[in-house]
Amino acid sequence: MDFPRNLPHLNQVPDSEPSWLCMAREGLSSIYQRGGIPALLQRLSMWLRDAAAGQLDHDGWEPIPRSGSCSATLDIAWFQNAAFNSTKDLPGHALGNSLLFLDKDIDGNQVLHSQLVSRKKALEKIWMTELDDAVTVERRRAINSFWFMAWGKRSKASAQRYNKSISNVSDLFEFAAVSGCEDEVRNFIYVICKPDAPAQGQYYVILIGEWRPKQLIQTIPGLANGEARKLELSGFLVFIEANGTKREIGSIFQLSLLAEANADNLNKLSGFNALPNNVVLLGAGALGSKVAEHLVREGIATLTIADHDRFAPHNLSRHALTSEALYFNKAKELRTFLLGINKVLDITACDVNIASVPAGLFKDQITGKKQGALIDCSADISVMRRLCQPDNVMRTIKLEIADNGQIGLLLYEGRRRNPRIDDLKALVQYLCVEIPEISLWLNRVDDQKIDTGIGCASASMLMSDSRVSVHAANFMASVSKIVRGGEYPSGMGVALANAEGHLQDWIWIDEPSFVLFNVLPWQVRVRKSVVENLALCRDRSKPNEAGGYLYGSFDLSLKAIYVIWACEPVAIEKTPVSIKLPPAGNSEEEMQIRHTCAGRLQLLGTWHSHPDSSSQASTTDITQFISDTAAYAANPSPHLLMIVGDKNISVSLGFPPLWK
């Protein structure tokens, strides 16, 4: 009975009972399940050793574990800072609103839970409803009530621990005296017990703050930073009984204080140190809804969702939303769903067709002025084209699912948006050379979806919810780092799942940049590796010219040509001033690659070198270019002539007459 009562890591017990050691934050039952009695004895030995050495609080101040059947949710950091930022080093107090939720346990006993709202937040903003004395909030009965917080002088930090259970007003006053704020608590009790107190005021939450000599342990979620962390909060629910005109304290219940699920706490609970930046999410379909949910649960604070589509019955097979959202706008319904996770989330829903946003207004209508990341989950090629316009200043992360869920693609733009999202999209068709699963997908006779956008939003797309979920979760490993400003290379990630849906590989392809050539109003966008390889071919062939063919794709809407691969077939004849190439597509390398990619890499034109001179086209080059342009017009497709000089590269571009 004479065991020290002022040690850290002691549970609350009455003075008449033996001390109850708190030997593990995880609970003794889990230790016993793992190692039995020997493990418990070992932990006890460690506890007593640390107690004797004064090392029980080696990692910060251990709060007294005041648990009870009632609980309260609050933004702990806000309350700590409110006390710390008080203007004078005196005992102080604060008052605010709370909601009290009533429930029953398995035995039919009433269980109470409080939601505390800081003074800077209105209840209407939190719960989106007008509050009467008793209201129904999210199908639960709730009573509008108040919280009161008191604290002592900061300069009188106390190392004394009050380990007694508090169940009556005498204990409460004694505890307040130990904490240095007895007068504040007594005055509050006097006010709420006055006969003229509001009749609906039956339950009140009282918080008592004790200043400690060191900061509270880091592992507690929701604490403030810096010196404000030294305030240890204890909570109590006070019940007022009314006998005629007389009001008096009936019961006092200790509260378990639970950290509010705000962005900061969710971020920390997810294991992240850095806070995420603002995110704009385009597309609130199946994939977009899963990604949005992950973002919010992992601590995103500011989110904009844009989608003009409405929630249809077939969406229920893969979407995060439920049947309550049917027939309403996806973005707005997803906003409501996400606020159910974090009620103080700064979230905007835009019911807008992204592809139809007028030129120059993308920032005004979609992204706003905040910095951050843009995630495209729309599976719509028209949206991708809109994102390529110069009024989109956010680097884009594009997420797609293909091949009936067996392939996931993450495309991430580079700095200054080079490579751009369309560059990476064009590169997909060349990845078949490195990734056999891409080739199998592109060669499937029944899958032409790469031509119209890859995704899982269509009612005709047969794909399970689990496949969408597993890709969304897998993407988050990269997305979470990007949105927190971490260093991440531009390029493409490819997730490969087997026929059963299990992820079996993640392949990352770095793509540092594209080299851009303006042939107004068109732009030729060439992989940097292609340019570097052409320079090597030029030098290797000296003193003779080198040459070959260019492959890739083009986009009429964007007026862009993407050179993804260049070959160097064995020349029929070459000299220092000329080269004669065999017919395009006949070399073994060309036939192999075109077969592998199912013919999706198109022949775009030719290239040759001027070994020791400029890249300016000669008269012979111009004559041949005019002839080749006419031949390409029969397809119809553009014709590209690239000349690699000793110091630079020139590009000429010809079009079918109808395109002009």
Question: What does this molecule look like?
Answer:
This protein has 660 residues and is α/β, with parallel strands linked by helices. It has 16 helices and 27 strands. An eight-stranded mixed sheet has the order 13-12-11-14-15-16-17-18, with helices on both faces. A hairpin with a 4-residue loop joins strand 15 and strand 16 (407-412). Helix 4 (169-179) packs antiparallel against helix 5 (182-192). The radius of gyration is 34 Å and the shape is elongated. It starts with 9 loop residues before the first strand and ends in a 6-residue tail after the last strand.
Task: Indicate the low-confidence ranges by residue numbers.
Answer: 122-137, 447-457
Largest sheet: 8 strands, mixed
Strand fraction equals: 25-35%
Span between N and C termini? 97 Å
Features:
single chain, 660 residues, alpha/beta, 7-stranded mixed beta barrel, 16 helices
